[in-house]
């Protein structure tokens, strides 16, 4: 086991003493003798014992050293040593002697695991105070820091503190989540998306501490989730497109970006509602929200949490538009209400206004995928009150989610999905049949319009997609940004966050990036990384103004290494310091230029083709090995690497290619070859419901990335391009049969360590059975090796 702590704030002795006094560990009668003070701290942390005999009995469960139990040491009257402090401390942190560490080598073992150690001898009161403070803020084996663990077991019930309460710069779990107030309001948005002559009212579900009733104003975490009021799975499945269709020839164009750039047209809105009265409390509640466990963590720490699904969702007005300007406006309206700058009502008919009087007017947005996407979108609007976003696995450009370089590209795992499919899936108003009745025809007409505008036939970038591209507006962001993304996420692919990161470089806001080795997942429940502490430090500063050096303490980039479990490290930038060029040769990636050409045919035998359409994993495996795909792709490898290299950035392919037809596409995969146990892209569950999020509150599974069985290769990154979009995604280039054209393509960015001895492989092929259309067309591709190369981004 290894733990990595980036959210731990080192403090002075005076600060440690002050915070321990406030938390109830120190008192005016605390012993001044170092050993006695330590045992007082232990007594305070053994929450289930109430007399001396029981305390001593519990001490007997711990080792003091390899030959002495702690009760015996207590009776001996001997002085505390650093080794004894940490032998016991490791056990308090849930590490087991002889399993997780060897008591004889406790200091070296603790350092190896990543437990922060306090320097110096343990003979003084001051040393014990500082060391205990550090231990309280150290992470346990099971995901929480030690003080959070004590809080989940009831520490603050016997040691009441002010609310909210901050320790080590982070909000503590001192709020009673069994008394949360749950209420619903309806925010009036500056929209009329269903054209009914009335501004859209949008349902907002609120959870806030009961202490707000006594005047406490709290910060808010807002999750904008079009899924939170339910989804229409069958309707989405019915609309999903067939991908077993041929790639189509496009007529060449000279289209410029200016011709397809989205330009909003002024819309005359209905008047605001006339207010009929005022209310301080909602008249509607709810029993269980579609929760997010990071939000649950903060509910126990004095934050309000709100969930808004937006236009076209259950109990809200309007229609669903999937990534449009109107959807961003709807989500921004919620923030405006929380900040006191927009109206909300107790229901959709009575016009009784209600204010967010309990809000301190500071908001952060949280959530993954569509949820994080809308956080990014709202950040571009400069909404007053939005202090930061935590944008996880988020889209920054919808075109590159459903399209790429002139091709229709599926998000990994969802072939045939498109913007209109997602719109109907999240149009949860359909589940309220009576309400749906009034907007059904209007919405179905809008879906038909979407189908035309999104243009699956050609796959070009157009005005529809430009409206759904947030990257041109990243320069307008004023709030600080945290980004989280998986380097193996082929749903929302890594380019989405890399483009956002690059766009933010010139924007004068704080920006933090966390990259993991997983797919499309949350990472707030992994014991190897103190993600919850990092976000607690960040949000305590951003939303409560705690001066905890969060911006300076958290690295700009934290990434998970792919070569060893539980290993996270800091980095300054996602960009190479140099490049390494390999030339394409027959079956070889060479350091010298080659000559000649290679060919492969995209058409497969019928049985093989049908097999792959039903089993994409089989296609993915056979693409990289000697076998049925041998004549249907180009595969080349380097010799074994003389020394380890670190890929940091966007690999590029320059290739000269001819298609036997007047249309064509190329797909690319960069591969790590060599027998090894590699990290699995899906984390294993260590302990079901093993991570408590507060006292008698919800729990999350503890998960961790583990090494899999030995395999021969692993995908590093990939890319796709339509040969008729060589210049850009909106201009169509001509393509003549058997005429060579030059392609330059950046693959999805990566951070990847390749140990010495491994081989780097490049696969070039046509149809991607997981992502492109699958027409099984008889197209022969020829690569001119002398004009083709792979360029790798090399990091330090």
Automatic annotation (TrEMBL):
- Identify the keywords attached in UniProt to this record, alphabetized: Aminopeptidase, Cytoplasm, Hydrolase, Protease, Serine protease
What SUPFAM superfamilies does this protein map onto? alpha/beta-Hydrolases (SSF53474), Galactose-binding domain-like (SSF49785), X-Prolyl dipeptidyl aminopeptidase PepX, N-terminal domain (SSF81761)
**Reaction equation(s) it catalyzes:** Hydrolyzes Xaa-Pro-|- bonds to release unblocked, N-terminal dipeptides from substrates including Ala-Pro-|-p-nitroanilide and (sequentially) Tyr-Pro-|-Phe-Pro-|-Gly-Pro-|-Ile
Q: Domain named Xaa-Pro dipeptidyl-peptidase C-terminal: which ranges?
A: 536-791
Any idea which GO molecular function terms this record carries?
Answer: dipeptidyl-peptidase activity
User: Which top EC class is named for this enzyme in its record?
Assistant: hydrolase
Per the record's keyword annotation, is Hydrolase included, yes or no? Answer: yes
EC number(s) reported in the record: 3.4.14.11
Describe, as the record does, how this protein assembles with itself and its partners. Answer: Homodimer.
Q: Which family is annotated?
A: Belongs to the peptidase S15 family.
Main role? Removes N-terminal dipeptides sequentially from polypeptides having unsubstituted N-termini provided that the penultimate residue is proline.
This one is known as Xaa-Pro dipeptidyl-peptidase
The species this protein was found in: Enterococcus xiangfangensis
Per the UniProt record, the lineage of the source organism begins with: Bacteria, Bacillati, Bacillota, Bacilli, Lactobacillales
């Amino acid at each position: 086991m290894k733990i990595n702590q980036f959210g731990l704030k080192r403090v002075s002795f005076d600060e440690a003493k002050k915070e321990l006094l406030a938390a109830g560990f120190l008192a005016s009668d605390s012993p001044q003798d170092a050993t006695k003070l330590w045992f007082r701290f232990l007594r305070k942390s053994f929450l289930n014992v109430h007399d001396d005999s029981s305390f001593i009995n519990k001490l007997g469960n711990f080792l003091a050293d390899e030959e002495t139990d702690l009760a015996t040491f207590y009776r001996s009257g001997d002085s505390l040593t650093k080794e004894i402090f940490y032998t016991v401390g490791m056990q308090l942190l849930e590490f087991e002697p002889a399993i997780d560490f060897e008591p004889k080598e406790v200091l070296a073992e603790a350092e190896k695991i990543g437990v922060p150690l306090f320097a110096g001898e343990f003979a003084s009161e001051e040393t014990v105070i500082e060391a205990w403070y550090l231990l309280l803020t150290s992470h346990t084996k099971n995901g929480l820091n030690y003080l959070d663990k004590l809080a989940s077991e009831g520490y603050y019930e016997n040691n009441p503190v002010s609310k909210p309460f901050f320790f080590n710069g982070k909000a503590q779990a001192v709020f009673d989540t069994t008394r949360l107030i749950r209420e619903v309001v309806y925010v009036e948005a500056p929209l009329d998306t269903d054209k009914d002559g009335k501004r859209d009212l949008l349902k907002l579900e609120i959870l806030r501490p009961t202490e707000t009733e006594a005047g406490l104003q709290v910060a808010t975490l807002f999750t904008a989730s079009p899924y939170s009021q339910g989804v229409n799975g069958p309707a989405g499945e019915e609309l999903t497109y067939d991908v077993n269709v041929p790639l189509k020839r496009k007529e060449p164009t000279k289209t410029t970006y200016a011709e397809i750039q989205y330009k909003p047209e002024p819309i005359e809105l209905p008047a605001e509602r006339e207010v009929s009265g005022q209310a301080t409390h909602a008249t509607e509640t709810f029993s269980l929200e579609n929760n997010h466990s990071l939000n649950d963590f903060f509910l126990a720490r004095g934050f309000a949490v709100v969930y808004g699904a937006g236009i076209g969702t259950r109990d809200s007005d309007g229609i669903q538009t999937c990534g449009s300007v109107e959807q961003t406006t709807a989500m921004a309206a919620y923030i405006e209400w929380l900040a006191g700058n927009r109206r909300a009502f107790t229901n959709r008919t009575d016009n009784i206004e209600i204010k967010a009087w309990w809000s301190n007017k500071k908001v952060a947005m949280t959530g993954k995928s569509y949820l994080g996407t809308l956080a990014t979108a709202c950040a571009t609007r400069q909404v007053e009150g939005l202090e930061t976003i935590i944008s996880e696995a988020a889209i920054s450009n919808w075109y590159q989610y459903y399209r790429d370089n002139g091709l229709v590209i599926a998000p990994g795992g969802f072939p045939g999905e498109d913007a209109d499919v997602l719109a109907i899936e999240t149009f949860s108003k359909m589940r309220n049949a009576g309400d749906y009745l009034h907007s059904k025809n209007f919405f179905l007409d809008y879906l038909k319009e979407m189908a035309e505008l999104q243009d699956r036939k050609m796959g070009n970038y157009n005005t529809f997609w430009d409206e759904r591209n947030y990257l041109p507006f990243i320069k307008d962001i004023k709030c600080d940004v945290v980004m989280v993304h998986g380097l193996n996420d082929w749903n929302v692919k890594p380019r989405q966050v890399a483009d956002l990161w690059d766009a933010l470089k010139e924007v004068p806001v704080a920006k933090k990036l966390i990259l993991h080795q997983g797919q499309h997942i949350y990472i707030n429940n992994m014991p190897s990384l103190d993600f919850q502490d990092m976000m607690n430090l960040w949000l305590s500063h951003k939303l409560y103004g705690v001066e905890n050096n969060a911006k300076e303490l958290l690295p700009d980039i934290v990434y998970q290494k792919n070569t060893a479990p539980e290993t996270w490290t800091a980095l300054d930038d996602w960009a190479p310091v140099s490049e390494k060029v390999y030339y394409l040769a027959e079956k070889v990636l060479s350091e010298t230029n080659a000559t000649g050409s290679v060919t492969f045919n995209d058409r497969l035998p019928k049985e093989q083709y049908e097999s792959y359409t039903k089993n994409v994993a089989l296609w993915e495996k056979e693409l990289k090995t000697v076998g049925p795909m041998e004549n249907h792709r180009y595969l080349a490898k380097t010799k074994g690497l003389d020394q380890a290299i670190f890929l940091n950035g966007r690999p590029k392919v320059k290739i000269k290619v001819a298609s036997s037809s007047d249309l064509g596409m190329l797909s690319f995969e960069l591969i790590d070859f060599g027998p090894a146990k590699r990290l699995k892209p899906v984390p294993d569950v260590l302990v079901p419901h093993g991570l408590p999020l507060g006292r008698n509150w919800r729990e999350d599974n503890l998960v961790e990335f583990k090494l899999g069985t030995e395999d021969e290769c692993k995908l590093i990154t990939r890319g796709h391009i339509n040969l008729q979009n060589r210049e850009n995604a909106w201009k169509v280039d001509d393509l003549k049969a058997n005429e060579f054209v030059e392609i330059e393509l950046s693959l999805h960015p990566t951070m990847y360590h390749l140990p010495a001895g491994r081989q780097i492989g490049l696969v070039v092929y046509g149809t991607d059975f997981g992502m492109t259309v699958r027409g099984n067309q008889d197209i022969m591709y020829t690569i001119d090796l002398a004009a083709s190369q792979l360029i790798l981004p090399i990091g330090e």
